[in-house]
Each structure stands twice: as C-alpha cells, then as structure tokens.
Write a structure and sequence with these properties.
Blueprint (H helix, E strand, L loop, with lengths): L9 H4 L2 H21 L5 H8 L4 E5 L8 E2 L9 H22 L7 E8 L3 E2 L3 H16 L7 E12 L6 E12 L12 H12 L7 E4 L8 H12 L9 H10 L6 E4 H15 L7 E8 L4 E3 L4
Antiparallel strand pairs: 1-2, 1-9, 3-6, 3-7, 4-6, 5-6, 5-8, 9-10
Helix pairs in contact: 2-3, 4-7, 4-9, 5-6
Bound molecules: zinc ion.
The site of zinc ion has 8 residues, from helix 4.
C-alpha cells in the first residue's frame, strides 16, 4: 500500500503529535512483536499491533488539532499507557482545584510499600495478597486520619535474579491535618509494621514514606510529578519470557485503586468526561507503515 509514489509529507512529520505517536507506536510494535512470538499471548500481540494504525485529525477546532484514532486499551500497550497518563494528569489537575474548595487544609504523603521479590510465575497470587493487605491496613484505627488514597502498582524486573520480579505499590495519601498532631503521626518504622501485619508475613518489608519536600517545587507540582511518574510508559523488560509471563499473570488484576475523598473527586471528574460532546468529524491524516516504521500520508 505504501510505495515511493506516496513519499513522506515533511509538514506532516513535523507535527509534534505525530512525532510523539511515532515514538510510541515503535515501542508498541516491539512489545506486540514479543507477544506475537508466543502462542499464549498471540492475541494480546495482535491487539496491540492494531493500536493507533490510522491517525485522524479532528476538524472541530482548527486552532487545537486533536488526534483521533482507535486504541487497543491493552495494559501492556505503550500508546494506551501514555493515553492513560494524559487522562490521569488532567483528572489530577481538576482534583487539586476541587480540593482547594474543601474547608479542611489537607496534606499529602508519598508512601511506597514493597514485598520481597517473587518468581514471575507466582505474581498473580502475590498481587492478590498485596491488594487484600492494603485494604486491611487502611481499616486500622491508627490510619483514621487518612482522607483518601491513590494506589499504583509497579512491577519491575529483577535483573540480578532471572525469572524474578519486584512488585510494589506507590501510594499518594491525602491526610487530614490532625495526622500531624503529635501522637497521631505514623512514623516510617510504624508503617513497615502495619504493612507487615496486614500481609501476615514474618519479615519486616521495606517501606518508604515522605511528606512534601521543600525543594522549591509547589506542593501541587510535587503531586502532579508523583502521578506522572507512576503512570509513565513502562520500560521494556530485558527478559522476553518474563515479560510474556507477566502479561498473563496481571490479566484482570486490579493495579490501580482510589479511595476516600480522592475517589469521590476523581469520579466527579470522570462524569464530566462522559458528558463530553459527541466525537466531531475528523479526517484521516496519517497511516502506520510497518515497512518504514513511521506514519505516512495515506494514498489519495
Ligand atoms: Zn493500545
């Protein structure tokens, strides 16, 4: 379909949105390739392979062109991870604005909860155990000053121990000012004990908690940076077999949760998204060429 009769359109290639999609589509093609090579994940590979094949441009507002395309919504797809990040950041900006209208002056804590690395083949039950432990931990009376949370699961590769992965939670906690009043404050060592008790394990897990840093960035910006980091496009795995297994082990798993006031504020934002105007008309702008590994202008 793409021949020399339809050369690169220089104007098209320089649209920043197209350049961004091109980088993401290349990553998606590499991921799809890994999954297509394995019969168990072949369908996952096919789905990701079809993501954002054709890019359209919305003619609704010529001043702010919006790329329209079909998204596969697969968890391992870099394009869909990026899209989710953009949505989450927009959502978070609204949440921060809504919080300013709240009577109470809430504060933020950044909490990381880990468990020992596990074989990727055992990841599914480990994630179930972590999810249940997290809910159990939040019910503790000591944490009653917690007003809300956002919890992201990150699973990184253990490059020193082939076949092992490192699942951990990055949590953004919204706390009532009363949590900082003397005896209500939960120290890092106590968080580790609470996490250990909730997990019902014999070792003390590694836990990290910190408040807003005084590094010149505003509190809101630090929260936004935290959300951006935790929804970033996942880096690719060195071991292909570990990645293929990970895709299977995380199927239908809950890797994100929102609770309390943050959940309420986020769902009001989601309703707004649903109330959006119907999709405007758009014209096809560009089509992916696997041969050239880039987007090209479609034949007229
Ligand atoms: Zn996708």
């Amino acid at each position: 379909m793409f021949t020399d009769r339809y050369p690169f359109d220089p104007a098209l290639q320089h649209l920043p949105q197209i350049q961004e999609f091109t980088q993401l589509k290349r990553k998606a093609e590499a991921i799809a390739g890994q999954l297509l090579r394995n019969s168990v994940t072949h369908q996952d590979g096919q789905l990701i392979h079809q993501c954002a094949e054709t890019l359209g441009i919305s003619t609704h507002n010529p001043m702010t062109p919006v790329i329209k395309t079909w998204y596969c919504k697969h968890r391992a797809c870099p394009i869909c991870q990026w899209r989710k990040q953009m949505k989450r950041l927009a959502q978070m900006h609204t949440v921060l604005d809504l919080l300013k209208m709240q009577p109470s002056n809430h504060r933020w804590l950044f909490l990381t909860l880990t468990v020992q690395n596990c074989p990727v083949t055992e990841l599914s039950p480990v994630l179930d155990c972590m999810n249940q432990a997290f809910s159990r931990m939040l019910r503790r009376k000591e944490l009653q000053h917690l007003a809300g949370h956002l919890r992201n699961t990150e699973i990184t590769e253990d490059t020193l121990h082939p076949g092992y992965v490192h699942p951990h939670f990055h949590c953004l906690l919204l706390v009532k000012p009363s949590m900082f009043a003397g005896k209500h404050y939960v120290k890092e060592s106590r968080w580790a004990e609470l996490w250990q008790e909730a997990l019902g394990i014999s070792y003390l897990p590694r836990v990290h908690v910190r408040g807003v840093a005084r590094d010149g960035l505003s509190e809101d910006q630090q929260v936004i940076n935290h959300v951006a980091y935790n929804t970033k496009v996942a880096s690719s795995y060195e071991q292909e077999d570990v990645f293929v297994e990970l895709v299977q082990q995380t199927k239908r798993k809950r890797l994100f949760s929102a609770g309390g006031l943050l959940r309420e504020l986020m769902s009001s934002e989601e309703r707004e998204l649903f109330d959006d105007e119907p999709e405007p008309e758009h014209r096809v702008l560009s089509q992916w060429s696997p041969t050239h590994s880039t987007y090209l202008q479609p034949p007229l």
